[in-house]
């Protein structure tokens, strides 16, 4: 495979953009090699600057549930652009999108639009702190909620201690308000509540997609809700990735646990920068200008992004078998990968929900971040590289989730499974 143009592009980018990328995972740091620079995408495929084609299981890290350059989204955007790009004034479209989201989901009575998942979770935390008049928050190791200061925190030493910054530049005065619990371990959450006595909220990905794909178990989610009620803390379910991906009602629909606040992103923007947070009306009405909690954005509810969101959700609504069909593809893929690995005696853990899937090169079932970290990342890197050379674009880290889109079909998945078989053959032969 010729990547010479991407290599040139990467070298040039690195001179003016730190690491050559505008979001670190894109640099392929954990799998090595040069990231293909993408020229265009169509449906299930992306094409790099050298003209190589790839079947894309990243789909912009989740947003593109209908694949690249979806015609309905494209024409909605072209129409919207003719009327102007941004006004910084209210538009009807914003209400249309918010009503669409509310009608399709549960736990949300009112909602506000923002530009990124980071903003959505950051604003939800501020609201939870204001509502409960408490300062501390609980998050889970391995869950990702964007890069705001309060959430770039890892577990301190020992159990149920206050967190320490996971990035230079985050003040420890701030991270000490974040407690870090173990995913799928309710006792660790209870311990955090008992340590702090000042917990405003728990924030969680009910389907963790940022430590690889690790679903919460149902009892754990139910007990988490009960603990939040017991300690008068809010439950924030972060559906930025799982919303309209895991199923029509996201992770909340699969677990049947009500959240007080919910965050959305990715799919609701159809590929444009758009996210949202919402929840109970009494909490949301604490936001300025109704209440005193300040939150704002020059480009929030941008009409172009909102148009892409509406076009995406209209298609979702018009297609009742969408998630069932996507889940069939995810199941076919993940069972095919599992069989291919097994027949080469390579241990592989797999799981999927709706259009989301994940696999770990690991002997044991992965239930939390400690388990995930025991995965064979060197094996993942080899597999990733081989699949890339064969024209299959998987997320470039063991600790990410994969996505199927509606532009894929059984033949494409069969092709990928055949290539995975070849990749495992080569890996065994070479070692
Ligand atoms: C992607 C993601 C975010 C952050 O969203 P950005 O738009 O990248 O800021 C937050 N939470 C979850 C669960 C995510 O997957």
From TrEMBL:
> What UniProt keywords are attached to this protein's entry?
Cytoplasm, Isomerase, Porphyrin biosynthesis, Pyridoxal phosphate
Oligomeric and partner information: Homodimer.
Check the record and name the InterPro entries matching this protein: 4pyrrol_synth_GluAld_NH2Trfase (IPR004639), Aminotrans_3 (IPR005814), Aminotrans_3_PPA_site (IPR049704), PyrdxlP-dep_Trfase (IPR015424), PyrdxlP-dep_Trfase_major (IPR015421), PyrdxlP-dep_Trfase_small (IPR015422)
Query: Where can this protein be found?
Result: Cytoplasm
Q: What coarse category fits the chief subcellular location reported for this protein?
A: cytoplasm
Pathway annotation from the record: Porphyrin-containing compound metabolism; protoporphyrin-IX biosynthesis; 5-aminolevulinate from L-glutamyl-tRNA(Glu): step 2/2
**Identification of the protein by name:** Glutamate-1-semialdehyde 2,1-aminomutase
Species whose genome carries this gene: Helicobacter japonicus
Phylogenetic classification of the source organism: Bacteria, Pseudomonadati, Campylobacterota, Epsilonproteobacteria, Campylobacterales
Gene Ontology MF terms in the entry: glutamate-1-semialdehyde 2,1-aminomutase activity; pyridoxal phosphate binding; transaminase activity
Cellular component terms (Gene Ontology): cytoplasm
Protein EC: 5.4.3.8
A single GO BP: protoporphyrinogen IX biosynthetic process
Alphabetized HAMAP family for the sequence:
HemL_aminotrans_3
Which cofactor does the UniProt annotation name? pyridoxal 5'-phosphate
Task: Indicate the family of this protein.
Answer: Belongs to the class-III pyridoxal-phosphate-dependent aminotransferase family. HemL subfamily.
């Amino acid at each position: 495979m010729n990547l010479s143009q991407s290599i040139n592009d990467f070298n040039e980018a690195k001179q003016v953009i730190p690491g050559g990328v505008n979001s670190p995972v894109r640099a392929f740091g954990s799998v090595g090699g040069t990231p293909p620079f993408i020229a265009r995408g169509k449906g299930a495929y992306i094409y790099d600057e050298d003209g190589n084609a790839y079947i894309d299981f990243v789909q912009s890290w989740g947003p593109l549930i209908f694949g690249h350059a979806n015609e309905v989204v494209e024409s909605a955007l072209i129409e919207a652009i003719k009327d102007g790009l941004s006004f910084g004034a209210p538009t009807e479209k914003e209400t249309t999108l918010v009503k669409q989201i509310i009608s399709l989901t549960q736990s949300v009575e009112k909602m506000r639009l923002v530009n990124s998942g980071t903003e959505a979770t950051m604003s939800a935390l501020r609201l939870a702190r204001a509502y409960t008049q408490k300062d501390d928050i609980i998050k889970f190791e391995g869950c990702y909620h964007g890069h705001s200061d309060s959430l770039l925190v890892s577990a301190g030493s020992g159990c149920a201690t206050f967190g320490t910054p996971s990035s230079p530049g985050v003040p420890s005065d701030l991270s000490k308000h974040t407690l870090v619990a173990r995913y799928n371990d309710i006792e660790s959450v209870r311990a955090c509540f008992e340590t702090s006595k000042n917990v405003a909220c728990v924030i969680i990905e009910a389907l963790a997609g940022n430590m690889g794909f690790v679903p919460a178990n149902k009892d754990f989610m139910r007990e988490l809700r009960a603990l939040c009620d017991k300690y008068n803390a809010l439950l924030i379910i972060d559906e930025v990735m799982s919303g309209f991906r895991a199923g029509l009602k996201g992770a909340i629909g699969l677990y049947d646990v009500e959240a007080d606040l919910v965050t959305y992103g990715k799919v609701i923007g159809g590929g444009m920068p758009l996210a949202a947070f919402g929840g109970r009306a009494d909490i949301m009405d604490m936001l300025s200008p109704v209440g005193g909690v300040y939150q704002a954005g020059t480009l929030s509810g941008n009409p172009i992004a909102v148009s892409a969101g509406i076009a995406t959700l209209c298609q979702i609504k018009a297609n009742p078998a969408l998630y069932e069909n996507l889940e069939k593809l995810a199941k076919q893929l993940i069972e095919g990968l599992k069989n291919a690995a097994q027949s080469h005696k390579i241990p592989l853990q797999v799981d999927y929900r709706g259009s989301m899937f994940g696999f770990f090169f690991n002997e044991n079932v992965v239930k939390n971040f400690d388990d995930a970290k025991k995965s064979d990342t060197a094996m993942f890197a080899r597999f990733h590289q081989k699949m890339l050379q064969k024209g299959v674009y998987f997320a470039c880290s063991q600790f990410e989730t994969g996505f199927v889109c509606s532009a894929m079909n059984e033949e494409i998945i069969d092709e990928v499974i055949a290539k995975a078989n070849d990749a495992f053959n080569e890996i065994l032969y070479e070692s």
